[in-house]
């Protein structure tokens, strides 16, 4: 009887939401003028893309369905997918030339801004001269970039290995930890995401991203130190005790390493509880393990610090990175100490495209742009401003359960009941689609798909932040 009641309740909630969505869509169709007037508030921008003459969105959808992996066809954020054909700084343009404020940046990738001339021009110059010499020959691009990248890290973190993605970087880091320590056990955090190859899939603690017939042994998942949903609230030290328990009761007492995101990205922009990383660091080091900081999404000034781990007073043994490192070029890296790096000399380790001359040129250009355009300072300033505005919005709308994050890596979690923290998954999709109609693109994440992931290019302005908040407010007011 209880199960039947629960099913009826869920059905009624879904039906109610559907009616609201239909009513909202009907109302919007009948009153297009207010939406048009709203769009007029989009901050001015002095760029007009050239006319697009390529295939339509429908044609691309059909081609994707026929020739791309079915898994790729699933990843369209909107009911009516966008055909994005042009980009400039914090804006994207569709096939009709319509402009959108990009608050997702290709999943926290385009930190410098779309087609930033400081990245584009050096890359064009390099690709005209030499595309791929292989690291078996000498070339200045990989040498200059590795030196510049190492200068951004503390302590003895100065040996760089280049990869093509975040998954590759994390796979390499896990392998190095196992080789260096002679142990196999890895500890990671529930709700974390580290990649989709066997080792990183094992470290990932999201059922959504794990295949049941892929061997994923030797990984232990600690309690997620989530201040909003976690069992210990914001008490980081209590969560860290679970790491100690896992090591004490689930391993020989010695581990290869501990890997964690400073702010969980795919998991819904979850900040680790205060004091957690430093407490976990001490526990891991006592167990002989290496501390691996996954900076794939939080690195390269996104959080207002250059690296997310800087806010936690720890110096990792290994740092992995990708996404923002190349502003859209397929590039990743692992940075570690000379001692740890030495383990790869025991056999031959080689990555054909790692440190490719064009990608390395892009990476070096990214570092230059971040410094010259003061993007780290802007991420801190505009991010704090935007977080404050979103927190004000939370006071107005009961559907907002939590606002969190740092810099321009922010999350807004939606719930249908604040006390029970019931995920408002369907409402999240509806509001996302409404915001798209108003010219703002955000991402979503979290295990239940009920968190807005706000990770715009770091050139985002306060005016852009205001417009994002206004569109979110408008969309929520019409639920």
UniProtKB/TrEMBL annotation:
The keyword Secreted does not apply. Pfam families: Aminotran_3 (PF00202). Keywords: Photorespiration, Pyridoxal phosphate. InterPro entries: Aminotrans_3, Aminotrans_3_PPA_site, PyrdxlP-dep_Trfase, PyrdxlP-dep_Trfase_major, PyrdxlP-dep_Trfase_small. It is an enzyme of class 2 (transferase). It catalyses: glyoxylate + L-alanine = glycine + pyruvate. Its cofactor is pyridoxal 5'-phosphate. One of its GO terms (biological process) is photorespiration. Gene3D superfamilies: Aspartate Aminotransferase, domain 1, Type I PLP-dependent aspartate aminotransferase-like (Major domain). It comes from Brassica campestris (Field mustard). Signal peptide: none annotated. Belongs to the class-III pyridoxal-phosphate-dependent aminotransferase family. PROSITE patterns: AA_TRANSFER_CLASS_3. It comes from the Eukaryota. GO terms for molecular function: alanine-glyoxylate transaminase activity; pyridoxal phosphate binding. Transmembrane segments: none annotated. This is alanine--glyoxylate transaminase. Its EC number is 2.6.1.44.
């Amino acid at each position: 009887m209880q199960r039947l009641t629960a099913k009826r309740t869920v059905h009624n909630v879904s039906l109610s939401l559907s009616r609201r969505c239909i009513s909202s869509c009907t109302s919007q169709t009948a009153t297009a003028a207010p939406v048009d007037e709203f769009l007029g508030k989009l901050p001015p921008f002095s760029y007009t893309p050239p006319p697009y003459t390529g295939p339509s969105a429908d044609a691309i959808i059909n081609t994707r369905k026929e020739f791309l992996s079915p898994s790729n066809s699933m990843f369209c954020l909107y009911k009516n997918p966008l055909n994005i054909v042009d980009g400039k700084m914090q804006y994207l343009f569709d096939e009709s030339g319509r402009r959108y404020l990009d608050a997702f940046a290709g999943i926290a990738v385009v930190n410098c801004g779309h087609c930033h001339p400081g990245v584009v021009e050096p890359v064009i110059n390099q690709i005209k001269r030499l595309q791929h010499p292989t690291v078996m020959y000498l070339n200045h691009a990989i040498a200059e970039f590795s030196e510049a990248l190492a200068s951004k890290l503390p302590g003895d973190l100065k040996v760089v290995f280049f990869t093509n993605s975040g998954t590759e970087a994390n796979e390499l880091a896990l392998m190095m930890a196992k080789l260096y320590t002679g142990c196999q056990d890895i500890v990671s955090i529930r709700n974390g995401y580290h990649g989709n190859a066997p080792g990183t899939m094992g470290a990932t603690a999201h059922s959504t991203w794990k295949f049941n017939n892929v061997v994923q042994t030797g990984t232990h998942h600690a309690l997620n130190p989530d201040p909003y949903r976690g069992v210990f609230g914001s008490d980081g030290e209590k969560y860290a005790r679970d790491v100690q328990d896992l090591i004490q009761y689930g391993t020989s007492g010695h581990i290869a390493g501990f890997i964690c995101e400073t702010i969980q990205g795919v998991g819904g922009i979850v900040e680790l509880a205060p004091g957690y990383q430093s407490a976990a660091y001490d526990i891991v080091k006592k167990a002989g393990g290496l501390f691996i900081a996954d900076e794939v999404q939080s690195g390269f000034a996104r959080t207002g610090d250059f690296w997310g781990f800087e806010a936690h007073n720890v110096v990792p043994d290994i740092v992995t990175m990708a996404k923002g490192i190349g502003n859209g070029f397929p590039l990743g890296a692992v940075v570690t100490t000379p001692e740890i790096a030495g383990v790869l000399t025991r056999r031959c380790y080689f990555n054909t495209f790692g440190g490719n001359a064009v990608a390395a040129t892009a990476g070096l250009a990214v570092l230059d742009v971040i410094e010259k355009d003061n993007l780290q300072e802007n991420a801190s300033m505009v991010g704090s401003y935007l977080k404050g505005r979103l927190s004000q919005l939370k006071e107005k709308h009961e559907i907002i359960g939590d606002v969190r994050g740092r810099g321009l890596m922010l999350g807004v979690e939606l719930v249908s009941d604040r006390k029970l923290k019931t995920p408002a998954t369907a409402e999240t999709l509806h509001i996302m689609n409404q915001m798209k109609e108003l010219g703002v693109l955000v991402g979503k994440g979290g295990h239940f798909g009920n968190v807005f992931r706000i990770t715009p290019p770091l050139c985002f302005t306060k005016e852009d932040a205001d417009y994002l908040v206004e569109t979110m407010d408008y969309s929520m007011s019409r639920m």
